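Notes from hallway chat w/ T.B., transcribed later so I don't forget. T.B. wanted the structure written out for a chain they're using in a teaching module, and asked if we could keep both sequence and structure tokens in one place. Agreed to drop them here.
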Amino acid sequence: MARMNLGDLVWTREPAAWKVSEDAVEVTTRPRTDLWQRTYYHFRNDNAPVLQARTEERYFSFTVRTNFSQSHHRFDQCGIVVYLDSESWIKASVEYENERFQHLGSVVTNGGWSDWATTEIPADERQMWYRLSRRGDDFRVECSRDGRVFSQMRVCHLAAATGAVNFGVYACSPEDSSFTARFDQFDFGPCAWTAHDGQQPDEG
């Protein structure tokens, strides 16, 4: 893996305030910002700040550490993202719920419909590493408490990821709140997700 040049990252939407240094990014969220499309809640939110790089690489891994020690209100969140457009994206984050627990989860949106895979973690966990790996138009999202041992969160398909993709970080506050998230230890390099060695692909 190689450290990323954070100067190459581009905002899709800017947050309330931000700071990009040589090795870290700080993002202060605006209230009522989120990414979600339709499913269950029947609303569409597409206004979260997203800071991304663009690559033609079809096989890569991206790793970053997130610090959300300032999150304090329901649904405050920060994490990684692959944002192609309003109807095609992936995000993974820890989302604050209350003083007892948070949601560690991921959302995949294909064709304008979102899902949400989640598990509860203690509210006192205040940082998380993520590793996003791409193999063609398929992706794997992993998380880690220590940046060394990663656990798989999900394997998914992003139908619109047929060429270059955008990937990076995001933070948002869907309700009436704001907090500052910090991202560091950005790494980008060869795909850490090895080819499947079990059942062979179907022919045709």
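Follow-up for T.B.: The chain has one domain: 2-189. Might be a good example for the class.
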